[in-house]
Model the fold of this input.
Amino acid sequence: MASAELNSIALKMVARKKGILAADESTGTMTKRLDSIGVESTSESRRQWRQLLFQTPDIGGYISGVIMYDETIRQSDDSGISFVELLAKNDILTGIKVDNSTHDLAGAPGEFITEGLDGLRGRLSEYYKLGARFAKWRALITVGEGRPSDYAIRVNMHALGRYAALCQEQGLVPIVEPEVLMDGSHSIDDCRSATTRSLVAVFEELAAQNVDLEGIVLKPNMVISGSDAPNRAPATEVARQTIDCFLETVPTNVPGIAFLSGGQGDEESVVNLDEINKIANQEDLPWELTYSYGRGLQAAPLAAWLGKTENVAAGQAAFQKRGLDSSAAREGIYTS
Ligand code: 13P
Done:
């Protein structure tokens, strides 16, 4: 794939006013989400949920791309239009989660490794034929006593490099997601240190494996206090530390950075992104800074829907509100 084509897809993914909807929950994760609203998780109920999101009337105003799961990319709406086609009609790109989730890392208690490299080339080729133009692979880094270890960082970032190189070979833009998990009582400085080490390592691997940085989108955590930390840092500090961390570690030819919400509260994920973009509006930063939220976009509409046909419009209104708020935050002009 020509580098110019990958670059134009990446730029479209991080276009102004828009962000990425992560609707790629594995069946296990989606089952937990549906359980939480008392809905049985079946292929059909999962299809109904994704249809609600994808049919939201003005979705193209705040969503540039949707990350799907293997089941979802093969599904269609009630009228038989494939989800890929439905989104394309709204100028939305289809993405696909291609990792096989995180597993315990041998010899490193409390740390994880993401699996899924075996056979990946063939799967990417099939997803491209199904209409996907970008992919996602999430590496998970935990913070705690002695964590993250150099070992966990090295093997996870190496796998991200291998995935990214294969994606570009097959014509897909890789979302490179080294997530430093928010779980724990660690400080924002501990998060900064783990994030810096992870980003340095991942860009070393991408360079070593000949990945074209103009054809990727980085999906990191924000630099943020642990969810159980006493005196969690305010949004202004999250924004400053996040940007300073990226200025030290992220090459300037990466087109864009799309944050995960990572379990932040709905308001928190929007206010932090807004503060980050307020700084971006004042300083000349080299990358677009947007969202690629899963829970941050879906929690409110899921609670409004409750699996009931009569609540579809309420679910879509809640999704629209989360999308418009995130879009305003992506521009640094959010007001609560
Ligand atoms: P959250 O925004 O819920 O963290 O999900 C984004 C994602 O895709 C994680 O891999």
Remarks:
- Residues 34 and 41 are 6 Å apart (CA to CA).
- Residues 188-208 form the longest helix (21 residues).
- The chain has one domain: 3-330.
- DSSP finds twelve helices and ten strands in the chain.
